Amino acid sequence: MNNVKSFWLGWGSLIVAGGGAYYFAKRSIIADRAERHEAEMRRQRLAEACENASRHGAGKGKEKSKYEASEPFRAKKGDRFS
Questions:
Q1: The model's pTM
Q2: How far apart are CA 25 and CA 36, in angstroms?
Q3: Rounded to an integer, what distance in angstroms lies between the CA atom of residue 55 and that of residue 66?
Q4: Are the CB atoms for 64 and 58 separated by under 8 Å?
């Protein structure tokens, strides 16, 4: 038999159970993201260390990226429409 007390007891237990499930699922998801982030950072550090070790001329003056031009772009002076 449903009365007011059992109605609120049912809804209350459902809300508490849902909140608990949400809390533990969220905690698990955050831990998984942190683990994946740490693995990605470790992989990037390893790749960077390998790249720096194999790059020619490493340690000579200012180090440039492999995508950086050897000399900076200099635009021509003057009117661009002539």
A1: 0.53
A2: 17
A3: 9
A4: no
Distance of alpha carbon 34 from alpha carbon 37, whole angstroms: 5
Block residue for tokens 């635009």: 75
- b/e map 38-54, b = 16+ CB within 10 Å: eeeeeeeeeeeeeeeee
Tokens 């470790």 correspond to 42
What does DSSP assign to residue 68? Answer: S
Question: 15 exposed, middle or buried (CB, 10 Å; 0-12, 13-18, 19+)?
Answer: exposed
Token pair 């790249």: residue: 51
What are the pLDDT digits (tens) for 60-70?
A: 556 677 888 88
Element (H, E) at 4: helix 4-54
